[in-house]
Amino acid sequence: MSLRTTLVGAAVGKLSEAEAAWRSLNGMFCVYKPAGITRKGAASILSNKLAASLNRMEVRPPRRRVQIENENGQLVVTSVPSYADHPLVVGERYIKKDVEVECCDTLDLDWSGVTVWRVGHSKKFKAFQASNPISSYAIQACLGKATDNFFSSGKVVEKASFKHVEKARFSKYISSIVARHQKQAYAYSGVHPDSKAAYELAKTGLVRPSGNTPFLIYGLSLTHFKPPDFTLELHCVGDSSDDVHGLVHEMALDLKTVAHTCAVRRFRYGPFDLKHALLKKHWSVEYVLENINELSEIVDRDDFIPEQPWFKEADAV
């Protein structure tokens, strides 16, 4: 249902009424962060855009003041708008500080993709952060050159031949990485991979250690290979830019060559994917409120885990 007829939670008035829309800005929503914008920068842009869209709606009129005038010896009392409360005097009704937003995690400056945010109050936001959500990335990389920061923005420090790297060998090596990380997941959970406890744990689904988990890979596949360019699909938890860029670098070294990361795009974060994420042109009150409403069924779930497999069975161990 369109937000033009229904606001989140209750019918609190027309969308043109800024106060009603502002009161409804409470909950979790998703946006697509472009590359080249930090989390702090994205938060600033979001707050500014939401405040600006609120000011374009119907805001409250200036407060009125009592005016007493002498007309022909008679005191006349009238009520007139107070210019001391006029937007042209005191500024816009809503400013950046009025719209509080917070991002669930940090997506690197050079990365793009799905990010989860809170606006106003959300009881589920902290629970989602603590659920250790799985991130899914499409990683574009290039063989033959190594940089000082493992990314395309760095200075080239080494070159090497890559003609000996074959797709079959690459894929087989990737499978060994996933198997190694799967064993680590059981270790971090405090059980032996070959024990009955590990079997019982595996029956409940993915083995996801709670708390601050080190970098763990649950799925990794080679989706494109046309040397020197290749693309990886990665599903993991506890990741950072150093982990992901370092993974590409170390994989290349084990294959007797060098490589660097060119671009990273997160296409899924926990149960949220690209279809849920608002593009920058849609960072406005109307779209954010519709997004909060759309995601409410997912947010209301306790586990935040997708009901369907989110990566190919062949990629998992």
Automatic annotation (TrEMBL):
Gene Ontology MF annotations: pseudouridine synthase activity; RNA binding
Domain Pseudouridine synthase II N-terminal stretches: 104-237
Family label: Belongs to the pseudouridine synthase TruB family.
Pfam families on file: TruB_N
UniProt-listed GO biological process terms: pseudouridine synthesis; RNA processing
Protein name, entry field: Pseudouridine synthase II N-terminal domain-containing protein
The organism of origin for this protein: Notodromas monacha
